[in-house]
Amino acid sequence: MPTGRRSGIAEFGNIVTGISVGVARKYLFFSTAKKAVVYLIVVIMLSLYGASFKLPEDFYFAKRRNLLNEYGVKLGWFWTLFVLVPFVHLTTKAHRKEMNVLFGNLMRVLVATGLWYFCTTWFVNFERMTGHCHGSEISSRSSCREDGGKWVPGFDISGHCFILIYSSLMICEESTAFRNIPYIYGRGSNSRTKESLNEAFAIKIYFLLMFALHLLWDFELVISVLYYHHIHHKIVGTFIALGCWFFTYHLWYPILGMPPPPIDEKIRQKVHQT
């Protein structure tokens, strides 16, 4: 391929990447407090709409076995960790933090994983405790049908609302470490090495993946709220997600400092031209 054509393609790629990063910054850096309020309003309003109007039943993404639900939401925590863990590692390294800081930053992900596991497990157990087997009162959910009964679901807290909202808010909180990347990887002679350029590119890619995942989770949240669960199931799931986010990122981390809050230092250094 001619050199001029390669440079033209590279320049076009840089333009697209720059625009995408700019849009991602606007979306991910939006106030998490305001976003939490928006999520609560959206869940309530769309739940009321879905309960009041007949929605198309043949809509592909509303089917439980659609690909996004089967391989996206049901594996939601895996995908969240898939983009967050490398991003946290790379941005910690970019800020020249010590290994103990990296360990502390990754501890936030571990704490979130523990909360996710505890809450989702408790949701399942709570539904079983509040449900019953019609026709065979002593049967468990697993043996109800075998005993000739019909399982009447209990209070089924929306795991979709919980994981989609909690993951999205967590992504936004962790994304603040990207604020300084343009300053850290400036145009100074010390920052134009091949290694630093590769690191900066990798961080941008993971930042854009976080943005894409956030958009996907928001789309899936709309579908879930419109089509599944009773309104009170969805509201409880939403409140638990908001509670986990607020408790960790706005009480635990800033007050106790261990794990530390996400990196959000205000670096405004001059960029020296080469």
Automatic annotation (TrEMBL):
It is found in: Endoplasmic reticulum membrane. It is a multi-pass membrane protein. GO terms for cellular component: endoplasmic reticulum membrane. One of its GO terms (biological process) is lipid droplet organization. The keyword Transmembrane helix applies. One of its GO terms (molecular function) is coenzyme A diphosphatase activity. The keyword Lipid metabolism applies. Its main location: endoplasmic reticulum. HAMAP family: FITM2. PANTHER family: ACYL-COENZYME A DIPHOSPHATASE FITM2. This is FIT family protein. It comes from Enterobius vermicularis (Human pinworm). The lineage of its organism: Eukaryota, Metazoa, Ecdysozoa, Nematoda, Chromadorea.
